[in-house]
Amino acid sequence: MRHRKSGRQLGRNTKHRHALFRNLVTSLIEHERIETTEAKAKEIRGLAEKMITLGKSGTLHARRQALSFIQQKTIVSKLFDDVAGRFHSRSGGYTRIIPTRRRPGDAAEMVALELVAREVSVKPEKESDTDAESDAEKK
């Protein structure tokens, strides 16, 4: 029986599982959206939110705690400078899980794990032909 045993093992030993969690959280902070399996997303959601909470505090101790988990100075700088500032008025719930597809091969449920207030890069739209013609007529 699994009484009082929390967390998923994900078919890995402890060190491999912790390394996987660290890599996924690092990728989430770097890209602000990742696609992974539902089980992995549910496991790292709490870890990612803890890192954002550390970023919101902004102290040297919090930065060192984040560095002990993330281990990439550029990603920790992004976390403390950019990402945490977007959540200053929010007291939790920094991530969302969106079901996307079933993975071909093993039919695992895939989800997109993303930050709620993420920066979306918008590509400039090309001018349509009618806009170009109307601009030419104005001249």
Looking at this protein, list some descriptive labels.
single chain; 139 residues; alpha+beta; three-stranded antiparallel β-sheet; 53% helix; globular; 50s Ribosomal Protein L17, Chain: A
The helix/strand order is: HEHHHEEH
Radius of gyration: 20 Å
**Overall shape:** globular
Distance between the termini: 80 Å
CATH topology annotation? 50s Ribosomal Protein L17, Chain: A
How many discrete structural domains?
Answer: 1
Report the structural category: alpha+beta
Number of strands: 3
CATH architecture term: Alpha-Beta Complex
InterPro entries: Ribosomal_bL17, Ribosomal_bL17_CS, Ribosomal_bL17_sf
Keywords: Ribonucleoprotein, Ribosomal protein
Protein name: Large ribosomal subunit protein bL17
Organism: Candidatus Nitronereus thalassa
Detail the topology: elements first, then pairings.
Elements: H1 14-31, E1 33-37, H2 38-57, H3 60-70, H4 73-86, E2 95-102, E3 109-115, H5 129-138
Overview of the molecule:
The structure is a single chain. This protein has 139 residues and is of the alpha+beta class. It has a single domain, classed as Alpha-Beta Complex (50s Ribosomal Protein L17, Chain: A), CATH 3.90.1030. 53% of the residues lie in helices and 14% in strands. It has helices at 14-31, 38-57, 60-70, 73-86, 129-138, and strands at 33-37, 95-102, 109-115. Strands 1-3-2 form a 3-stranded antiparallel beta sheet. Helix 1 crosses helix 2, helix 2 (38-57) runs antiparallel to helix 3 (60-70) and helix 3 packs across helix 4 (73-86). The N and C termini lie far apart (80 Å). Keywords: Ribonucleoprotein, Ribosomal protein. This is Large ribosomal subunit protein bL17. It comes from Candidatus Nitronereus thalassa.
